[in-house]
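Fresh eyes needed here. I'd like your take on this protein's tokenised backbone:
***
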Amino acid sequence: MNAVRVVARRQVRSLMLAAGVRSCVPAFTASPSMQLRTAKKVAAKKAVAKKVTKKPAKKVAAKKPAMKTVKKASAVKKAAASKARAAKKAAAAKNRAAAKKAAAKAQKAAAKAKKAAQKAKSALKAKALRSRMAAKKAAAAKKSAAKKVKATLKRERSTKKRAALKEKADAKRAVVEKKRAEKKAIRASGAVRPYSLFVQQTTSGNKGKIDLKKVAAEWKALSEGQKQKYRDQAKKNLSKRRATRQSLKRAPGKYALFCKKHFPAEFAAAKKNTTNHKDAFKAATRAVAKKYKSQ
């Protein structure tokens, strides 16, 4: 610490000597740093005082121009300044007007562009909506068409089913009617036994209760000559019934006629090879079928 103070005092002394101060007795003993700052301030003030005391160089006085020339120059200068100000003002106004016009034009162009963009957006939106509606309409039409086709197929199936059922019922009814007609035709030939014929003729007009014991007693009371008449009529009726049955039979086919012609010979040949009647019948049937196919 003492070494620092010694160095500071030496610096203060050197600064005071440079400023022209021979002695400096401070009113109080200050710290070395404070003494350093004080010495710097004193040196600065001394330098400012030297600059102020230095006299400037004497200027050569210029010759004053004439008053008229000065006034004219001043007027020209003022006119030029006024013209410049006016030109500057006009240029500024022109620039402002051009900027305003450009801004208005840009605003108009922006509004026009915005309107065009909105119009394009609305057009795209409308187009998308039309596309969706068209797709929806097409889907509905397709669904409706599919539904109609399904209903048509269902109706056709139902119609075909009803027609098939009706055809089946008609075929069944036709078979029943045919059998009924056959039975009626067979019954129309009359009784084929003498006693049955007697009972039929005796009770044909009687709608009440029939006494079969009385009818049997009457049949037994008849003579052989009287019974012969019923026998002959029953025989005729039997022939008529057989003819009716034969007429009701279906005409035989080609294979049936072929079997009728060739089966007896084949059956006789098969019986020579085996004693079993069933095996002989099967062998004869196979032989006849093979011969029929080889035609």
